[in-house]
Specification:
Radius of gyration: 29 Å
Strand content: 5-15%
Number of helices: 4
Largest sheet: 2 strands, antiparallel
Structural class: mainly alpha
Number of strands: 2
Distance between the termini: 90 Å
Helix content: 40-55%
């Protein structure tokens, strides 16, 4: 049996989230599938602890079923972020297979850049700028002389 360790004692909220998530996984998956998933996660953690900057494939069993690959990514996301607010997005792999990306739903969404002005709006803005420039020049020419 694989042992599972909670996060640091000072990290109660993260430990609660991860512990609860592991309980749900254990109840949802058969014992063998749960152990396979935990071994893949432990292998990833060992690789990262050894200085690997990224792990792009699920380590362990090369025939890890797609639903377990999803569970692996979800579990890694919970472990890394300490929260459950993420989504998995299915992506088409170059070889025709399926891959997954984890999207953190807690990040603030950026507003799209405003659309550039239409040619009519741009012309109107240019005309207004030219008129204002003319007014500024006219008031400078007729303003009080001296200081």
């Amino acid at each position: 049996m694989i042992e599972h360790h909670a996060a640091d004692p000072g990290d109660d909220q993260e430990a609660d989230v991860l512990g609860s998530y592991l309980e749900v996984l254990r109840a949802r998956l058969s014992g063998e599938r749960f152990e396979l998933l935990i071994r893949a996660v432990q292998t990833t953690c060992a690789l990262l602890a050894d200085g690997r900057e990224a792990v792009l494939e699920v380590p362990g069993d090369p025939d890890l079923a797609p639903e377990l690959q999803r569970e692996y990514l979800s579990l890694m996301a919970v472990m890394i972020t300490g929260h459950l607010d993420h989504s998995l997005v299915e992506l088409a792999a170059p070889d025709g297979g399926t891959g997954w990306a984890v999207v953190d739903n807690t990040l603030p969404r950026r507003e799209p850049a405003p659309a550039p002005p239409s040619p009519c709006e741009a012309a109107e803005r240019a005309w207004i700028a030219q008129e204002l420039d003319g007014i500024v020049r006219a008031t400078q020419d007729t303003g009080p002389a001296g200081g």
